Amino acid sequence: MQRKSYTTQKAQRKMALNEMNKISELIFIPTPGIGHLASSLEFAKLLINTNNNLSITILCIKFPGFPFADSYIKTALASQPQIQLIDLPDVELPPQELLNSPEFFILTLMESLVPHVKATIQTILSDKVVGLVLDFFRVSMIDVGNELGIPSYIFLTSNVGFLSLMLSLQNRRIEDIFDDSDLDRQFSIHGFSIPVPFKALPDAAFNKDGGYVAYYKLAERFRDTKGIIVNTFSGLEQYSIDALSSHDEKIPPIYAVGPLLDLKGNPNPKLDQAQHDVILKWLDEQPNKSVVFLCFGSMGNSFVPSQIREIALGLKDSGVRFLWANNAGKQGLPEGFLEWMELEGKGMICVWAPQVEILGHKAIGGFVSHCGWNSILESLWFGVPILTWPIYAEQQLNAFRMVREWGVAVELRVDYRRGSDNVVAEEIEKGLKDLMDRDNIVHKKVQEIKEKARNAVVVGGSSFISVGKFVENVIGTN
Fold first, then answer.
1. 218-266: per-residue pLDDT in tens?
2. What is the CA angle 116-119-121, rounded to 5?
3. Are 26 and 53 in contact (CB under 8 A)?
4. What one-character DSSP code corresponds to residue 333?
5. Helix ranges (DSSP H) in 78-113
Protein backbone atom coordinates (compact mmCIF):
# COMPACT_ATOMS: atom_id res chain seq x y z
CA MET A 1 0.00 0.00 0.00
CA GLN A 2 1.42 3.37 -0.97
CA ARG A 3 2.14 5.57 2.04
CA LYS A 4 0.96 9.16 1.76
CA SER A 5 3.52 11.87 2.35
CA TYR A 6 3.41 13.98 5.49
CA THR A 7 2.55 17.01 3.35
CA THR A 8 -0.39 15.20 1.75
CA GLN A 9 -1.66 14.01 5.12
CA LYS A 10 -1.38 17.50 6.54
CA ALA A 11 -3.26 18.97 3.58
CA GLN A 12 -6.02 16.39 3.90
CA ARG A 13 -6.39 17.05 7.64
CA LYS A 14 -6.61 20.77 6.92
CA MET A 15 -9.29 20.18 4.26
CA ALA A 16 -11.28 17.99 6.65
CA LEU A 17 -11.01 20.62 9.41
CA ASN A 18 -12.13 23.36 7.05
CA GLU A 19 -15.09 21.24 5.97
CA MET A 20 -16.08 20.66 9.59
CA ASN A 21 -15.80 24.37 10.37
CA LYS A 22 -17.63 25.47 7.26
CA ILE A 23 -20.64 27.62 8.02
CA SER A 24 -23.73 26.48 6.13
CA GLU A 25 -26.48 29.00 5.56
CA LEU A 26 -30.24 28.50 5.52
CA ILE A 27 -32.64 31.06 4.09
CA PHE A 28 -35.97 31.23 5.93
CA ILE A 29 -38.97 32.74 4.14
CA PRO A 30 -41.84 32.90 6.67
CA THR A 31 -45.34 34.27 6.24
CA PRO A 32 -46.25 37.38 8.27
CA GLY A 33 -48.71 36.95 11.10
CA ILE A 34 -47.77 36.07 14.66
CA GLY A 35 -49.26 32.58 14.38
CA HIS A 36 -46.83 31.73 11.59
CA LEU A 37 -43.85 33.79 12.71
CA ALA A 38 -43.67 32.56 16.30
CA SER A 39 -42.88 28.91 15.56
CA SER A 40 -40.75 29.76 12.49
CA LEU A 41 -38.50 32.03 14.52
CA GLU A 42 -38.33 29.53 17.37
CA PHE A 43 -37.13 26.90 14.90
CA ALA A 44 -34.51 29.28 13.53
CA LYS A 45 -33.25 30.05 17.05
CA LEU A 46 -33.21 26.35 17.94
CA LEU A 47 -31.05 25.54 14.91
CA ILE A 48 -28.61 28.36 15.68
CA ASN A 49 -28.35 27.54 19.37
CA THR A 50 -27.62 23.85 18.74
CA ASN A 51 -25.43 24.08 15.62
CA ASN A 52 -22.37 26.31 15.57
CA ASN A 53 -21.85 25.63 11.87
CA LEU A 54 -25.17 27.15 10.77
CA SER A 55 -26.18 30.70 9.97
CA ILE A 56 -29.66 31.86 8.96
CA THR A 57 -30.98 34.69 6.82
CA ILE A 58 -34.67 35.56 7.14
CA LEU A 59 -36.45 37.33 4.29
CA CYS A 60 -39.16 39.53 5.79
CA ILE A 61 -42.32 40.87 4.21
CA LYS A 62 -44.30 43.74 5.68
CA PHE A 63 -48.00 43.05 5.46
CA PRO A 64 -50.59 45.72 6.35
CA GLY A 65 -52.83 43.20 8.12
CA PHE A 66 -50.08 42.36 10.63
CA PRO A 67 -48.62 45.67 11.88
CA PHE A 68 -46.75 44.04 14.79
CA ALA A 69 -44.88 41.46 12.70
CA ASP A 70 -41.83 43.63 12.08
CA SER A 71 -41.36 44.59 15.73
CA TYR A 72 -41.99 41.00 16.81
CA ILE A 73 -39.26 39.65 14.54
CA LYS A 74 -36.71 42.21 15.70
CA THR A 75 -37.53 41.66 19.37
CA ALA A 76 -37.48 37.87 19.10
CA LEU A 77 -34.11 37.84 17.33
CA ALA A 78 -32.41 40.72 19.16
CA SER A 79 -29.84 38.42 20.78
CA GLN A 80 -29.17 36.23 17.74
CA PRO A 81 -26.17 37.61 15.79
CA GLN A 82 -26.06 34.49 13.59
CA ILE A 83 -29.49 35.39 12.19
CA GLN A 84 -29.70 38.32 9.80
CA LEU A 85 -32.84 39.96 8.46
CA ILE A 86 -33.45 41.25 4.94
CA ASP A 87 -36.63 43.17 4.14
CA LEU A 88 -38.31 42.33 0.86
CA PRO A 89 -39.65 45.22 -1.25
CA ASP A 90 -43.30 46.13 -0.84
CA VAL A 91 -45.59 44.84 -3.57
CA GLU A 92 -49.07 45.80 -4.65
CA LEU A 93 -51.67 43.87 -2.72
CA PRO A 94 -53.99 41.49 -4.59
CA PRO A 95 -57.52 42.70 -5.42
CA GLN A 96 -59.72 43.16 -2.36
CA GLU A 97 -62.32 40.73 -3.66
CA LEU A 98 -59.81 37.92 -3.05
CA LEU A 99 -60.24 38.53 0.66
CA ASN A 100 -63.32 36.32 0.42
CA SER A 101 -60.72 33.62 0.79
CA PRO A 102 -57.86 34.65 3.10
CA GLU A 103 -55.88 31.57 2.05
CA PHE A 104 -56.11 32.41 -1.66
CA PHE A 105 -55.36 36.10 -0.95
CA ILE A 106 -52.15 35.20 0.92
CA LEU A 107 -51.12 32.63 -1.69
CA THR A 108 -51.59 35.22 -4.47
CA LEU A 109 -49.58 37.79 -2.53
CA MET A 110 -46.76 35.30 -1.98
CA GLU A 111 -46.64 34.45 -5.69
CA SER A 112 -46.23 38.15 -6.54
CA LEU A 113 -43.09 38.22 -4.40
CA VAL A 114 -41.27 35.54 -6.39
CA PRO A 115 -39.17 37.96 -8.54
CA HIS A 116 -38.10 39.91 -5.45
CA VAL A 117 -37.20 36.74 -3.56
CA LYS A 118 -35.12 35.50 -6.49
CA ALA A 119 -33.29 38.81 -6.84
CA THR A 120 -32.61 38.98 -3.09
CA ILE A 121 -31.30 35.42 -2.88
CA GLN A 122 -29.02 36.03 -5.87
CA THR A 123 -27.35 38.89 -3.99
CA ILE A 124 -26.43 36.62 -1.09
CA LEU A 125 -25.97 33.37 -3.00
CA SER A 126 -22.82 31.41 -2.30
CA ASP A 127 -21.79 27.83 -1.80
CA LYS A 128 -22.70 28.30 1.86
CA VAL A 129 -26.45 28.43 1.10
CA VAL A 130 -27.70 24.87 1.57
CA GLY A 131 -31.47 25.22 1.74
CA LEU A 132 -34.63 27.29 1.71
CA VAL A 133 -37.03 26.85 4.64
CA LEU A 134 -40.41 27.96 3.30
CA ASP A 135 -43.62 28.60 5.17
CA PHE A 136 -46.22 26.37 3.53
CA PHE A 137 -47.86 29.45 1.94
CA ARG A 138 -44.56 30.10 0.13
CA VAL A 139 -44.52 27.02 -2.11
CA SER A 140 -44.10 29.22 -5.21
CA MET A 141 -40.54 29.87 -3.97
CA ILE A 142 -39.68 26.20 -4.65
CA ASP A 143 -39.18 27.17 -8.29
CA VAL A 144 -36.69 29.85 -7.24
CA GLY A 145 -34.75 27.28 -5.28
CA ASN A 146 -34.76 24.83 -8.18
CA GLU A 147 -33.54 27.48 -10.59
CA LEU A 148 -30.71 28.48 -8.27
CA GLY A 149 -29.82 24.93 -7.30
CA ILE A 150 -30.99 25.23 -3.69
CA PRO A 151 -33.17 22.48 -2.14
CA SER A 152 -36.39 23.56 -0.46
CA TYR A 153 -38.01 22.42 2.78
CA ILE A 154 -41.57 23.20 3.83
CA PHE A 155 -42.18 24.51 7.34
CA LEU A 156 -45.72 23.65 8.44
CA THR A 157 -46.93 25.80 11.32
CA SER A 158 -49.89 23.48 11.90
CA ASN A 159 -49.92 19.70 12.44
CA VAL A 160 -49.57 16.46 10.49
CA GLY A 161 -53.34 15.97 10.46
CA PHE A 162 -53.74 19.23 8.55
CA LEU A 163 -50.98 18.10 6.19
CA SER A 164 -52.90 14.85 5.68
CA LEU A 165 -56.07 16.72 4.79
CA MET A 166 -54.38 18.94 2.21
CA LEU A 167 -52.61 16.00 0.59
CA SER A 168 -55.90 14.08 0.46
CA LEU A 169 -57.44 16.77 -1.75
CA GLN A 170 -55.19 15.60 -4.59
CA ASN A 171 -57.15 12.34 -4.75
CA ARG A 172 -60.65 13.60 -3.99
CA ARG A 173 -63.33 14.76 -6.39
CA ILE A 174 -64.22 18.42 -5.92
CA GLU A 175 -67.92 17.51 -6.10
CA ASP A 176 -67.50 15.45 -2.92
CA ILE A 177 -66.27 18.46 -0.99
CA PHE A 178 -68.87 20.94 -2.20
CA ASP A 179 -71.79 18.53 -1.92
CA ASP A 180 -73.61 19.63 1.24
CA SER A 181 -76.63 17.37 0.77
CA ASP A 182 -75.45 15.15 3.65
CA LEU A 183 -73.92 17.20 6.44
CA ASP A 184 -73.43 14.10 8.59
CA ARG A 185 -71.20 12.25 6.15
CA GLN A 186 -67.59 11.40 7.01
CA PHE A 187 -64.28 11.15 5.16
CA SER A 188 -61.53 8.59 5.56
CA ILE A 189 -58.20 10.45 5.42
CA HIS A 190 -54.79 8.83 5.71
CA GLY A 191 -53.19 10.25 8.84
CA PHE A 192 -56.36 10.15 10.94
CA SER A 193 -57.10 7.16 13.15
CA ILE A 194 -60.87 7.80 12.89
CA PRO A 195 -63.17 9.10 10.12
CA VAL A 196 -63.35 12.89 9.81
CA PRO A 197 -66.85 14.44 9.74
CA PHE A 198 -67.79 16.85 6.99
CA LYS A 199 -68.49 19.57 9.56
CA ALA A 200 -64.96 19.41 10.97
CA LEU A 201 -63.25 20.34 7.69
CA PRO A 202 -61.77 23.86 7.50
CA ASP A 203 -63.78 26.68 5.96
CA ALA A 204 -61.35 26.90 3.05
CA ALA A 205 -62.29 23.40 1.93
CA PHE A 206 -65.78 24.69 1.12
CA ASN A 207 -64.75 28.06 -0.26
CA LYS A 208 -65.42 28.14 -4.01
CA ASP A 209 -63.90 31.64 -4.22
CA GLY A 210 -60.39 30.27 -3.92
CA GLY A 211 -59.90 28.61 -0.54
CA TYR A 212 -60.14 25.11 -1.94
CA VAL A 213 -57.91 26.05 -4.87
CA ALA A 214 -55.34 27.52 -2.46
CA TYR A 215 -55.21 24.30 -0.41
CA TYR A 216 -54.92 22.24 -3.59
CA LYS A 217 -52.14 24.38 -5.09
CA LEU A 218 -50.21 24.38 -1.82
CA ALA A 219 -50.40 20.63 -1.32
CA GLU A 220 -49.45 19.69 -4.88
CA ARG A 221 -46.00 21.24 -4.34
CA PHE A 222 -45.22 19.56 -1.01
CA ARG A 223 -43.81 16.50 -2.75
CA ASP A 224 -41.36 18.72 -4.68
CA THR A 225 -39.38 19.45 -1.52
CA LYS A 226 -36.58 17.68 0.34
CA GLY A 227 -38.58 17.50 3.55
CA ILE A 228 -41.57 18.75 5.54
CA ILE A 229 -40.83 20.26 8.94
CA VAL A 230 -43.83 20.18 11.29
CA ASN A 231 -44.33 21.89 14.64
CA THR A 232 -45.51 18.75 16.40
CA PHE A 233 -44.06 15.79 18.30
CA SER A 234 -44.20 12.04 17.83
CA GLY A 235 -45.85 11.42 21.20
CA LEU A 236 -48.91 13.16 19.79
CA GLU A 237 -48.84 12.39 16.06
CA GLN A 238 -46.70 9.33 15.42
CA TYR A 239 -49.72 7.49 14.00
CA SER A 240 -50.28 10.30 11.48
CA ILE A 241 -46.61 10.42 10.47
CA ASP A 242 -46.44 6.66 9.96
CA ALA A 243 -49.76 6.52 8.09
CA LEU A 244 -48.75 9.24 5.64
CA SER A 245 -45.27 7.88 5.05
CA SER A 246 -46.47 4.31 4.46
CA HIS A 247 -49.35 5.38 2.21
CA ASP A 248 -47.37 7.52 -0.23
CA GLU A 249 -43.72 6.81 -0.97
CA LYS A 250 -43.45 10.16 -2.79
CA ILE A 251 -43.97 12.11 0.41
CA PRO A 252 -40.61 13.54 1.52
CA PRO A 253 -39.31 12.94 5.05
CA ILE A 254 -41.48 14.45 7.79
CA TYR A 255 -39.51 16.08 10.59
CA ALA A 256 -41.55 16.45 13.81
CA VAL A 257 -39.51 19.10 15.64
CA GLY A 258 -41.92 20.54 18.22
CA PRO A 259 -43.33 21.80 20.37
CA LEU A 260 -41.70 25.02 19.17
CA LEU A 261 -42.94 27.57 21.69
CA ASP A 262 -42.08 31.16 22.48
CA LEU A 263 -42.25 30.74 26.25
CA LYS A 264 -41.33 34.40 26.76
CA GLY A 265 -44.58 35.41 25.12
CA ASN A 266 -45.34 37.72 22.19
CA PRO A 267 -44.71 41.44 22.60
CA ASN A 268 -47.91 43.38 22.15
CA PRO A 269 -48.42 47.15 22.35
CA LYS A 270 -51.93 46.66 23.77
CA LEU A 271 -50.54 45.40 27.06
CA ASP A 272 -48.59 47.79 29.25
CA GLN A 273 -46.57 46.66 32.23
CA ALA A 274 -49.09 48.03 34.74
CA GLN A 275 -51.91 45.95 33.23
CA HIS A 276 -49.62 42.92 33.11
CA ASP A 277 -48.89 43.29 36.82
CA VAL A 278 -52.59 43.67 37.69
CA ILE A 279 -53.44 40.44 35.84
CA LEU A 280 -50.67 38.43 37.49
CA LYS A 281 -51.45 39.85 40.94
CA TRP A 282 -55.09 38.82 40.57
CA LEU A 283 -54.09 35.31 39.49
CA ASP A 284 -51.68 35.02 42.42
CA GLU A 285 -54.64 35.53 44.75
CA GLN A 286 -56.74 32.71 43.25
CA PRO A 287 -56.73 29.06 44.41
CA ASN A 288 -54.72 26.53 42.40
CA LYS A 289 -56.36 25.36 39.16
CA SER A 290 -59.52 27.35 39.89
CA VAL A 291 -59.51 29.83 36.99
CA VAL A 292 -60.69 29.43 33.41
CA PHE A 293 -58.78 31.48 30.86
CA LEU A 294 -60.75 32.60 27.78
CA CYS A 295 -58.76 33.78 24.77
CA PHE A 296 -59.54 33.46 21.07
CA GLY A 297 -56.28 34.30 19.36
CA SER A 298 -54.85 37.29 17.54
CA MET A 299 -57.68 37.28 14.96
CA GLY A 300 -60.50 35.56 16.76
CA ASN A 301 -61.77 38.05 19.30
CA SER A 302 -64.40 39.69 17.11
CA PHE A 303 -67.64 38.18 18.39
CA VAL A 304 -70.86 40.07 17.77
CA PRO A 305 -72.36 41.77 20.85
CA SER A 306 -75.05 39.08 21.18
CA GLN A 307 -72.36 36.39 21.46
CA ILE A 308 -70.45 38.44 24.02
CA ARG A 309 -73.62 38.55 26.06
CA GLU A 310 -74.05 34.77 25.94
CA ILE A 311 -70.43 34.25 27.04
CA ALA A 312 -70.90 36.60 29.98
CA LEU A 313 -74.12 34.89 31.09
CA GLY A 314 -72.53 31.46 30.71
CA LEU A 315 -69.60 32.52 32.88
CA LYS A 316 -71.87 34.00 35.53
CA ASP A 317 -74.19 30.98 35.70
CA SER A 318 -71.31 28.47 35.79
CA GLY A 319 -69.89 29.94 38.98
CA VAL A 320 -66.28 29.42 37.81
CA ARG A 321 -63.50 31.95 38.29
CA PHE A 322 -62.39 33.41 34.98
CA LEU A 323 -59.89 35.60 33.18
CA TRP A 324 -61.34 36.76 29.87
CA ALA A 325 -59.22 38.37 27.14
CA ASN A 326 -61.92 40.38 25.36
CA ASN A 327 -60.89 43.22 23.09
CA ALA A 328 -64.53 44.25 22.67
CA GLY A 329 -64.34 45.85 26.11
CA LYS A 330 -67.76 46.52 27.63
CA GLN A 331 -69.64 46.16 24.34
CA GLY A 332 -72.30 43.46 24.54
CA LEU A 333 -71.94 42.75 28.25
CA PRO A 334 -75.27 42.31 30.07
CA GLU A 335 -76.41 45.14 32.30
CA GLY A 336 -74.95 44.79 35.77
CA PHE A 337 -72.36 42.18 34.75
CA LEU A 338 -69.32 44.31 35.57
CA GLU A 339 -70.81 45.25 38.94
CA TRP A 340 -71.51 41.58 39.71
CA MET A 341 -68.00 40.62 38.64
CA GLU A 342 -66.44 43.22 40.92
CA LEU A 343 -68.68 42.29 43.85
CA GLU A 344 -68.02 38.56 43.58
CA GLY A 345 -64.31 38.97 42.81
CA LYS A 346 -64.43 35.86 40.64
CA GLY A 347 -63.54 37.34 37.30
CA MET A 348 -61.38 39.74 35.34
CA ILE A 349 -61.74 41.10 31.80
CA CYS A 350 -58.73 42.48 29.95
CA VAL A 351 -58.16 43.70 26.39
CA TRP A 352 -55.13 41.46 25.87
CA ALA A 353 -53.27 39.04 28.11
CA PRO A 354 -49.84 37.35 28.15
CA GLN A 355 -51.17 33.94 27.16
CA VAL A 356 -48.06 31.83 27.76
CA GLU A 357 -47.45 33.33 31.18
CA ILE A 358 -51.09 32.83 32.12
CA LEU A 359 -51.30 29.21 30.97
CA GLY A 360 -48.20 28.47 33.04
CA HIS A 361 -49.72 30.00 36.18
CA LYS A 362 -50.74 27.67 39.00
CA ALA A 363 -54.21 29.25 39.23
CA ILE A 364 -55.24 28.21 35.71
CA GLY A 365 -57.31 25.04 35.51
CA GLY A 366 -58.88 25.32 32.06
CA PHE A 367 -58.65 27.18 28.76
CA VAL A 368 -61.49 28.22 26.43
CA SER A 369 -59.69 28.44 23.10
CA HIS A 370 -60.19 28.95 19.38
CA CYS A 371 -57.92 25.91 18.92
CA GLY A 372 -55.20 27.60 16.93
CA TRP A 373 -52.26 25.19 16.77
CA ASN A 374 -49.85 27.38 18.76
CA SER A 375 -52.43 27.76 21.52
CA ILE A 376 -53.02 24.01 21.58
CA LEU A 377 -49.31 23.29 21.92
CA GLU A 378 -49.02 25.85 24.72
CA SER A 379 -51.94 24.31 26.59
CA LEU A 380 -50.48 20.81 26.22
CA TRP A 381 -47.05 22.03 27.34
CA PHE A 382 -48.54 23.33 30.59
CA GLY A 383 -51.07 20.51 30.99
CA VAL A 384 -54.14 22.76 30.77
CA PRO A 385 -57.26 21.16 29.24
CA ILE A 386 -59.17 23.05 26.55
CA LEU A 387 -62.84 23.76 25.95
CA THR A 388 -63.00 23.87 22.14
CA TRP A 389 -64.42 26.93 20.36
CA PRO A 390 -62.95 26.90 16.81
CA ILE A 391 -63.61 29.90 14.60
CA TYR A 392 -61.51 30.00 11.40
CA ALA A 393 -58.69 28.37 9.38
CA GLU A 394 -58.04 24.72 10.35
CA GLN A 395 -59.32 25.21 13.91
CA GLN A 396 -62.38 22.99 13.35
CA LEU A 397 -60.09 20.13 12.42
CA ASN A 398 -57.84 20.78 15.43
CA ALA A 399 -60.83 20.82 17.76
CA PHE A 400 -62.14 17.56 16.34
CA ARG A 401 -58.81 15.84 16.87
CA MET A 402 -58.39 17.21 20.38
CA VAL A 403 -61.80 15.92 21.44
CA ARG A 404 -62.48 12.81 19.37
CA GLU A 405 -59.06 11.48 18.36
CA TRP A 406 -56.83 12.31 21.34
CA GLY A 407 -59.33 12.85 24.16
CA VAL A 408 -57.43 15.82 25.60
CA ALA A 409 -60.17 18.47 25.32
CA VAL A 410 -63.80 19.04 26.26
CA GLU A 411 -66.18 19.73 23.40
CA LEU A 412 -68.12 22.96 23.29
CA ARG A 413 -68.25 23.04 19.49
CA VAL A 414 -66.11 21.46 16.78
CA ASP A 415 -67.99 23.01 13.86
CA TYR A 416 -68.56 26.61 14.92
CA ARG A 417 -67.92 29.10 12.11
CA ARG A 418 -68.30 32.81 11.55
CA GLY A 419 -71.89 33.54 10.68
CA SER A 420 -73.25 30.49 12.45
CA ASP A 421 -75.73 30.70 15.30
CA ASN A 422 -74.50 31.96 18.64
CA VAL A 423 -73.28 29.49 21.22
CA VAL A 424 -75.86 30.06 23.94
CA ALA A 425 -75.23 30.61 27.63
CA GLU A 426 -76.54 27.18 28.62
CA GLU A 427 -74.01 25.46 26.33
CA ILE A 428 -71.19 27.59 27.67
CA GLU A 429 -72.20 26.98 31.28
CA LYS A 430 -72.25 23.21 30.81
CA GLY A 431 -68.95 23.24 28.92
CA LEU A 432 -67.24 25.27 31.64
CA LYS A 433 -68.46 22.95 34.37
CA ASP A 434 -67.28 19.88 32.45
CA LEU A 435 -63.93 21.53 31.77
CA MET A 436 -63.31 22.33 35.44
CA ASP A 437 -64.46 18.93 36.72
CA ARG A 438 -61.23 17.49 38.06
CA ASP A 439 -62.64 13.97 37.78
CA ASN A 440 -62.98 14.36 34.01
CA ILE A 441 -60.60 11.90 32.31
CA VAL A 442 -59.46 14.75 30.06
CA HIS A 443 -57.36 16.15 32.91
CA LYS A 444 -55.42 12.89 33.25
CA LYS A 445 -54.84 12.57 29.51
CA VAL A 446 -53.60 16.15 29.23
CA GLN A 447 -51.01 15.47 31.92
CA GLU A 448 -49.82 12.41 30.01
CA ILE A 449 -49.39 14.44 26.81
CA LYS A 450 -47.65 17.19 28.78
CA GLU A 451 -44.95 14.72 29.80
CA LYS A 452 -44.59 13.50 26.20
CA ALA A 453 -44.29 17.07 24.91
CA ARG A 454 -41.53 17.93 27.36
CA ASN A 455 -39.69 14.67 26.84
CA ALA A 456 -39.68 15.24 23.08
CA VAL A 457 -37.44 18.30 23.21
CA VAL A 458 -34.79 17.21 25.72
CA VAL A 459 -31.48 15.73 24.61
CA GLY A 460 -32.24 12.30 23.16
CA GLY A 461 -35.96 13.07 22.80
CA SER A 462 -37.86 12.39 19.59
CA SER A 463 -37.92 16.02 18.41
CA PHE A 464 -34.28 16.53 19.38
CA ILE A 465 -33.37 13.55 17.20
CA SER A 466 -35.61 14.78 14.38
CA VAL A 467 -33.92 18.20 14.36
CA GLY A 468 -30.55 16.43 14.14
CA LYS A 469 -31.72 14.38 11.17
CA PHE A 470 -32.93 17.54 9.44
CA VAL A 471 -29.56 19.23 9.92
CA GLU A 472 -27.75 16.15 8.59
CA ASN A 473 -30.04 16.15 5.56
CA VAL A 474 -29.47 19.85 4.88
CA ILE A 475 -25.70 19.82 5.26
CA GLY A 476 -25.51 16.60 3.27
CA THR A 477 -27.04 18.39 0.28
CA ASN A 478 -24.20 20.92 0.24
1. 999 999 999 999 999 999 999 999 999 888 888 999 999 999 998 876 5
2. 105
3. no
4. P
5. 102-112
